[in-house]
Sequence to fold (330 residues):
Amino acid sequence: MTAMSSLDPQSATRRRTAAWVTAVGLAVLAGAAAVALSWRAQLPHPVASHWGVDGTADGFSSLNGVLAVMLGFGIALVLGFGAVTLLLGQSAVTRRIGAAAAIWSALFMCLLTLGTLYIQRGLTDARDAGGIGAVVLAAIVGSLLPAVAVGALVPGDPRLPASEAVAADAPRAELAAGERTTWTARTDAGAAMGVGIVAVAVLLALVVVTRVWALLIVVGLLGILIVSMFRWVVRVDGTGLAIRSAIGWPRVRVPLDEVVRADVIQVRALRDFGGWGLRVGRGGRVGVVLRSGEAMLVQRTGGRSVAVTVDGAATGAGVLNALADRARRA
Fold:
């Protein structure tokens, strides 16, 4: 099977994934709205809809108003991430990110809304509602775990071996016959990591001010996310290209027999990918973008591509092209 003949199955996979994840997300929102409406007789009027840093309710709304906010933001996020899955999901990485983000958005909005309403059941005055630290924590953790599970359940890409040799004008390293070689490089985000550390510090200060100590779990999760997104190892060897975070996950892999060609390009982090870390760019291109500047671009079968900002990109591209070309001629 050639790469061209497999484009229709890939499109079908994107459509199916986008359809079911959007349907599940919208169903979760509708179910949460139905539960909240069933509590109407048990809730004060108006209900508390905002809490200050001291943990007391300081904003109020009708139940319908609270549900309108939940449904408005929730539907917009679910449809948005569903569109990302459909339009940019050429690679399994993108489909998994889109699906997980859609489910996380729906669950987080629902758990946060239902949690803040639940603590007001039976009250005559919403000002008597307590703090929502536990509710926020439950919403974050309770939405994160199912979202990760959904992302893991999204099927990977089918194998699409290339049928043609690497283009003659692609850069190549000189390899002796039968020579086994490996190219490895490490890359980190530098300034972007500094921004992440500042974000952790700000959140930690907020926890101290509000004394909602349960949110320290969120601080820990954010710290792990920063480490996983802003330090990566890039490896080229006889199996292809592997890009993995400092903690081993997430990772991006391109098998050697799916490499069409590798080149060096210049990447602008914000313009091309909208930020730093594991990103999705124009046309569904997957990017491990840790800074603007030199990057290795690997075009693979099925109209997919991966870009990674790394020093020595020309060397890595040359080695990958040489290995892919030699494997194809064997």
